[in-house]
Amino acid sequence: MKTVARQMFRTCNKLFSRKTQNDVVEAHPSNIETAAQMDNIQHLTSPSHNTSIGDSIHHIEAVMERAHRGGWLLCGIICINILILGCALVSGSAFNSVAITAVHRQIFLIILLLLTMSWMLFYTVFTSRKDEAVSFRDGHAGPAWLRAGLLLFGLLSLIMDIFKIATAVGYLHCDSAVKVAFPVVQAVFLFVQTYFLWIHVKDCVQLHTHFTRCGLTLTLSTNLVVWMAAVTEESLHQTDIPDLNYNVSQRMYRASFVNKKCNCSYSACYTFKEASYYLYPFNIEYSLFASAMAYVMWKNVGRLVDNHSHHKVKFRIKDVCLGPLTGVLLVVAGLATFIVYEVDMETGDVTKTDKALLIHFIMNIVIVGMMSLSTVIGCIIYRLDHREHVSEKNPTRSLDVGLLVGASLGQFIISYFTIVAVVAIEVRGYLNALNLTWALLTVLQLGLQNYFIIEGLHREPFHVMQEAALHTNPHACQEHPEIIIVQESHKSSYFLTSSCDKPSWKRRVLKEVCAFLLLANIILWIMPAFGARPQFDHHIEIKFYTVSMWTAIVNIGLPFGIFYRMHSVASLFEVYVIS
């Protein structure tokens, strides 16, 4: 039935192109989401064809709707069961009082990884090689920077697994062999999944659609469970709870890799274990990158797209100076203060820890303050900009916006809880004033940045406007000197190249703002991802909310806040390119 629907879709396409070819080319939607959208095109044809073609379109719509409904229901059942079971095992293994250990969690993860790899191999060897299995490819899915990030984070995650294998081997004489098997299986999984996503992320599969959707759902769920496990281990390792409630802190601080009675058989064991924790942030980001790419593939299963609708744009950093320079200075200053913060916190001296908190708070206030100011400038430019909003449906862009808004909730939660605690207690002191200022500015900065990025992602690229002018006016490039569009001889794709003249001032300002925000978000990702925990080093929130509640708030909200910064970097890069 699915094959019949595809054939009818192509037949309708041919009928339209024969009758009024020019009209169809001009009015054809740039991104055909489903065959049902052909309803908008049939009005361009002659009235004599309306009845028969309309019946065909409605039949295609019914077929596609029935196929999608059954597949989505099955995928939802698989995803919910895997995620809830995984969440229960990950949460249970974090407590001593529950008879679930890290070994049980790792056995579950090994099963998931093996099942996911088996499906990926089946798809690569059988499904993707069938005739008409991948008739369409989504040009928006899996851009080069996303695949490069996946490859980089995958490589660093592989190094982390090597360190974990070296650590676990030293405990084989007194601990479970599962702790050796899990990083080995995960290392193989990293290689297989990275290859799979690199090659097939743009596929719009038209064959074995139900099985492919279930396989992609399994891939998505597996990566999310791996992400939950890594976040839990890393959070408990970084959480140094003060001795205000001894029982709770001892129960929660279960970051040790093995039992204290089991000693490593060689001296370098501790070094490998500590080194692996520094690579956890990259493994966390890898799992999220892979989850996002698997979701886009899932949305593209059975999707009919226009292969010639994507416009390729080359990345250029020419004519942008102030934003990158200021951003680099912020990154260097942030790294310096972060190192001072970590070193002083290790001493345990009250004077040095207060000084470290003072420097850390001031640095973060400066960063978010400058980001808020630059974002306001960018939003003003958007008000002066007359580019149209993008009308086509795009699963990648919808996912980017959803992740951006959802992930920002983690930082919003921590900031608002801090504001309530500081204001309610009414404690005096410069550290409390700085902490409150930082929280208020963070709330402002998050709202402004979300608006700026979402607005930028939904604007038509500058070169699309020029491309439209080029079709109607051969002298368009002379009238708009900021870009030159070159059409390749055998492709309907356009490449953006810079001319000798500088871009318009609005484009330059937007690029400066994007470059600065991109680098500022990088330093705001580095500091919490690699161990900065002022939420526990400054005790005002712990005294107000108690240890157990504040620990839960931070360990839930902070991972989302860390992901928000990395995702903002990716989204700002996209906005920079289309600006």
Q: How are the SSEs placed, and which strands pair?
A:
Elements: H1 2-19, H2 21-27, H3 50-92, H4 102-125, E1 136-137, H5 144-169, H6 178-200, E2 203-204, H7 209-238, H8 246-252, H9 269-278, H10 280-300, H11 322-347, H12 350-384, H13 395-425, H14 430-457, H15 462-472, H16 476-479, E3 483-487, E4 494-498, H17 505-529, H18 534-537, H19 540-545, H20 547-578
Antiparallel strand pairs: 1-2, 3-4
Helix pairs in contact: 1-2, 1-3, 3-7, 4-6, 4-7, 5-6, 5-9, 5-10, 6-10, 7-10, 11-12, 11-17, 12-14, 12-17, 13-14, 13-20, 17-20
Description:
The structure is a single chain. This protein has 579 residues and is mostly helical. 71% of the residues lie in helices and 2% in strands. Strands 1-2 form a two-stranded antiparallel sheet. The chain has a two-stranded antiparallel ribbon with strand order 3-4. Strand 3 and strand 4 form a beta hairpin. The longest helix is centred in the first third of the chain and has 43 residues.
